[in-house]
Amino acid sequence: ILTDKPSFQGKNQDLIDVLPQFTGDIMQIPPMVSALKKDGKRLYDLAREGIEVEREASPTSVYKLEMLDDLNTNNIDSDVKSDTNVDCGKWSMHVESSGGFYVRTLIEDIGRAVGGAAHMTALLRVKAGPFVLDDCLPPEPEAWTFEAICEGINITNGKVGLTDLPPAFNSNNR
Question: pTM, whole model, 2 decimals?
Answer without folding.
Answer: 0.70
